[in-house]
Amino acid sequence: MPVETLPSPSWHTAFGLGFVSSVFDNIPLTALAIKQDGYDWGFLAYAVGYGGSMLWFGSSAGVALSNMFPEARSAYLWLRHGWHVILAYVAGFIVLVALIGWHPELLNKTQASAKSLPSTSNSRLVAQGQH
Questions:
Q1: Does residue 2 lie in a domain region?
Q2: For the chain, what is the largest distance between any 2 Cα atoms, rounded to a whole number of angstroms?
Q3: CA 119, CA 48: separation in Å to the nearest integer?
Q4: Which of 42, 47, 72, 79 sits CB 3.0–4.6 Å from 18 for a disulfide?
Q5: Residue 57 and residue 52: Cα distance in Å, rounded?
Q6: Which domain holds residue 114?
Q7: pLDDT tens digits, residue range 87-105?
Q8: Domain count, the chain
Q9: Distance, CA of 22 to CA of 82 (rounded, Å)
């Protein structure tokens, strides 16, 4: 998936990734976020780690539990009896935003510096005094 088509990295996007990772595998989602760059990595880890466990098939413990108790394989029942897990995810994320704040960091510093440099045609215009 081209990262250019993804929403821009923000705490809103990271929050949403938590819910998406409860349905889809969080490893490819995290890989896409790393490729996109510009996330607060603590928020992203919280979102995909915690969010990935909101449904039984998103966590190893949930899969093990559902093997012991097949009735746990119902996503509806899981959410009906585990609604507090979603509430705790939302509350925890709000506390992170309020206490720590969003501090994005670029992992790929070379790519970041190349993005911040003007293109060669713009450099020539600036050097000539034309903007």
A1: no
A2: 74
A3: 36
A4: 47
A5: 8
A6: 7-127
A7: 999 999 999 999 999 999 8
A8: 1
A9: 13
What is the rounded distance in angstroms from the CA atom of residue 82 to the CA atom of residue 103?
A: 31
35's tokens: 């490729």
Please tell me the distance from the alpha carbon of residue 66 to that of residue 22, in angstroms, as a whole number: 16
Q: How far apart are CA 28 and CA 112, in angstroms?
A: 22
What one-letter code names the amino acid at 13? Answer: T
How crowded is residue 12: how many other Cβ atoms within 10 Å of its Cβ?
12
1 belongs to a structural domain: no
Cβ neighbors of 22 (< 8 A, separation 6 or more) are: 51, 52, 53, 54, 55, 58
Helices of type H across the chain: 11-21, 26-36, 41-51, 60-68, 75-81, 83-99, 109-116, 120-127
Rounded to the nearest angstrom, the gap between the alpha carbon of residue 39 and the centroid of all alpha carbons in its chain is 8
pLDDT in tens, 29-64: 888 888 899 999 999 999 998 988 888 777 777 788
Joined together, the tokens standing for residue 98 give 């309020």
Record the pTM. 0.73
